[in-house]
Amino acid sequence: MADQIGIGIVGGGYMGKAHSAAFASVGTVFETRLKPRLVSIAASSPESADRYASAFGFERAAPDWRALVEDPGVEAVVIASPQSTHRDIALAAMALGKPVLCEKPMGLDVAEARAMVEAAKAAGVANMVAYNYIRTPASQYVRQLLAEGVIGRITQFRCTHDEDFHIAQKTPAWRCEGDANGCLGDLAPHAINAALALMGPIAELSAVIETVYPERNGIPVTNDDQVQMMVRFDSGVMGHIASSRVATGRKMGYAYEITGTEGAIRFDQEDQNAIWLYRKDDAAGQKGFRKILTGPDHPDYLPFCQGYGHGTGYQDQIIIEAHDFLTAIDTGKAVWPTFEAGLEVHQVIAAVRAAHAGRDWQRPSDF
Questions:
Q1: Of residues 92, 96, 161, 165, the one with CA closest to residue 133
Q2: Where are the beta strands (DSSP E) in 73-224?
Q3: Which residues contact residue 60 at a Cβ distance below 8 angstroms, ignoring those fewer than 6 apart?
Q4: 179-220 pLDDT tens trace
Q5: What percent of the chain has pLDDT over 90?
Q6: pLDDT digits (tens, 9 = 90+) for 94-124
Q7: Bridge partners of 159?
Q8: CB–CB of 239/158 below 8 Å?
Q9: Closest by Cα among 287, 283, 305 to 296
Q10: Is there a contact between 92 and 330 (Cβ–Cβ < 8 Å)?
């Protein structure tokens, strides 16, 4: 028998709409036992919340996030509001025993992220951070290949998350100030999350942070445009992680290349329904990267489509995320990435800032 669960979403903008659509459809796509019910949505004003509730199909609008969290009909909370609000909303929800799915990054800094981790442990409720790109069927398949040792011992890892939105369109003032709104606070966490997911913990790193354009469209820029990191993982493997919001021509340049002793793997989110696999022992005349299209045999693909090459899209990643969150609630077992995994990203970010300031190597575990 299916059970209903009341969902409350804080934030109705870009990600609020994406999460609303995901929870409206996940029960059908994945045929989940827990069936979400869109109960309440809160936004920057009661008027906005009313508009979103009507547009997205919620039962009601909340005058503010506190009222939403305290609503008895809201049994799980999704945080899709600005980063500066994440900690307070999460702590209030978990204090009432309500599971929380929080957009990335978790909070403004390590201290806020750690407070959220401690609150989650104390409450004993399901908790997840919304890193959606790593959830594509292709990247989930890559994680399987690595676990199976298909490309041998890993010798090198490279990952980027490059976009050009900061130069390709009129820049809003809020993007130009505050560490949380810079590249390291906004885009780079996705690349860091990918590195941790595919390669494991980072033992140490050095980094350079740069502001390329001191002003955009007449607005002074006081945060960073791009960052580069040289890292060594706990495994001993060396790697490079880079991110830029001013990478002309790149729209969704979330990409990685993993080199091993027996082969290599490449992936690019702009072609998210395929990976490129090289095997060292391929026959003469057949050597080179081969394109593997995702299909029903790859993780979380079949619920969307029964045919190879038809593909999944951005919204589908959010639906997969909603499914993972419901699974964590339903089974009582943690589903990665939990708040602890989100804290690990914040520790890397803190180490990057320290390494840039000191022009030295830093250990994320020290933060």
A1: 161
A2: 76-79, 100-103, 127-130, 154-162, 202-210, 215-216, 219-220
A3: 39, 40, 53
A4: 999 999 999 999 999 999 999 999 999 999 999 999 988 899
A5: 95
A6: 999 999 999 999 999 999 999 999 999 999 9
A7: 241, 256
A8: yes
A9: 305
A10: no
Q: Which two tokens stand for residue 321?
A: 């995320």
Instruction: Enter the tokens of residue 230.
Output: 């040289």
CA angle 297, 264, 310 (to 5 degrees): 30
- Tokens at 275, concatenated: 């990976």
Look up residue 237 and give its two tokens: 């493997």
Local structure of 57: helix, strand or coil: coil
Task: Kindly tell me the burial class for residue 307, based on how many C-beta atoms sit within 10 Å of its own C-beta (0-12, 13-18, 19 or more).
Answer: exposed
Confidence (pTM):
0.95
Long-range contacts of 18-22 (CB under 8 A, 24+ apart): 18/80, 18/314, 18/315, 18/318, 19/78, 19/80, 19/101, 19/130, 19/318, 19/322, 20/52, 20/56, 20/57, 20/58, 21/56, 21/315, 21/318, 22/315, 22/318, 22/319, 22/321, 22/322
Token reading at 227 = 């960052």
